[in-house]
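Q: Make up one entry.
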Amino acid sequence: MSQPSIPKGTRDFSPEEMAKRNYIFDTIREVFKLYGFRQIETPAMENLSTLMGKYGEEGDKLLFKILNSGDYLKGISDEALLERNTNRLATQISEKGLRYDLTVPFARYVVMHRNEITFPFRRYQIQPVWRADRPQKGRYREFFQCDADIIGSDSLINEVELIQIIDEVFNRFGIRVGIKLNNRKILSGIAEIIGESDKITDITVAIDKLDKIGLEKVNEELASKGIPQKAIEQLQPIILLEGNNQEKLDTLKSVLQASATGIKGVEELEFILNKLQIIGIRSQLELDLTLARGLNYYTGAIIEVKALDVQIGSITGGGRYDNLTGIFGLPGVSGVGFSFGADRIFDVLNQLDLYPKDSRQNTQVLFVNFGEKEEEYILPLITKVRRAGISTEIYPEAAKMKKQMSYADANKIPYVAIIGENEMAEDKIMLKNMVTGEQKLLTVDECISEIASH
C-alpha cells in the first residue's frame, strides 16, 4: 500500500507550528483592530466570472478551476474534445474557481452588500488563497493572506495609516523590513513620455521582475512585447533611478513634467512620505520605480515589503485600486489595501527564531493519573485550574509513571501535578517543575499562583 501524500505546494502544520501560526494571526488581528478594522469572511470558491480578467493574463493562468458537479462533459461535443482547446473547454466544464487573493472577493462583497455597508468601510480578512504556481522556497499553492482594506475614500491618509500598520506589525514581530513604495500613475506617466502608453501593462509586468531576472532579461522581455529600442533606452535611467527619496521625487518632477498623470503620482507619493516623516516609522522606506506588482487593478500607490535579514520574496504587498468595484457595476468607489503573507512571515520568524516562548506552549500542567479513586479526586481540581485560565490535561489512563512523565516531556508541558494517597490525605498537590526538576507540595490555589507566575 503506497504512502499517502499531499499536493505539491501545500503543507501540514503540527500543533507546535499551529501555535506559531496563531501567534502570527493574533498579532496581526490585534493591530488591525487597533486601527479600527472589522472582520469579514468570503467563500473559498468564487464564480470564475468574478475572478477572471482581474489579475492580468499571467494571473488568470494561475487560477485553480473547479470542475462542474456531475457529468461535467455533458453537452461537450466530440469535435470540441478532439480540438483540445483547453481555454475554451475550461469555460464550458468549470464555472467556479478557488480564490486567488482576498481583494477581488472583497470588491465583489462590497458591491453585493453596498446597501448594508457604511462608507468608508474598513475591513480585515484572514483566510487561505490558492494559486496554481510552481512551488519553490517561499512560494506555495495554498497559503494564508491577512488583508486590510479601506474602501469608499480616496484620502491619502489611508495609505499613510496602512504603512503605519505594516510598521507596527513587523516591529511587534521583531522583523527588520524594507518598505518599498511606488505609484502606478508614475509608471503610466513614464509610458506616456516614451510614447508607449498602450504598453503600460507589458512595461510594468517586465520591470516588476528586475530583482528576479536582472536588467538584461527585463530589456529582452520589453523588446519581445514590441516596445521599440529607443523607448527601452529611455526607460533605463528611470528604472535605475538613484538617490534618497526626496532626490528621486525631484528628478521625477523634472522627467515627468510633460505628463499630468505622472506628476499627479509624484504629488501623491510626496504627500504620503511627508506625513510619514512627521509621524516617524521604524522601518526603512524607499521609493522604488521598479516596483509594479504586475497586477492590473492598481491605480495609485503601490506598496511592497521585504525582510532585510532573510532571503525570501515579498512578505507584504498592496496598493490603491480605484476601479476595482466598477468591474462589478459599482463605479466611483475608491479603495486601498494590502495583504500580509502569513506563510512567508512564518518562514521568516522560523529562520530568525523570533517566536516568544509562550507562543509555542499549549498545555501548562499535566495531572498524573494513578487510577479511578485519584481520578474522582482530581477532576474537580482540574476544573478549578482551568477556570483560572490555565491550560490543563489529565493523563487519560492509569499508566506507569515513567510513561506519563515521558508524555509531558514530549509535549513540552512545563508542570506535572502528582496526587497520590498521601497528597489526598493532606489535600495538597505535588507540583513538579519539568524544567528545573524542583518539586513543591502546594494547595490547589498555591499551584494556580505558581503556574500563573511563570
Observations:
- The CA atoms of residues 57 and 340 lie 24 Å apart.
- The longest strand covers residues 121-130.
- The radius of gyration is 28 Å.
- The chain has a mean pLDDT of 90.
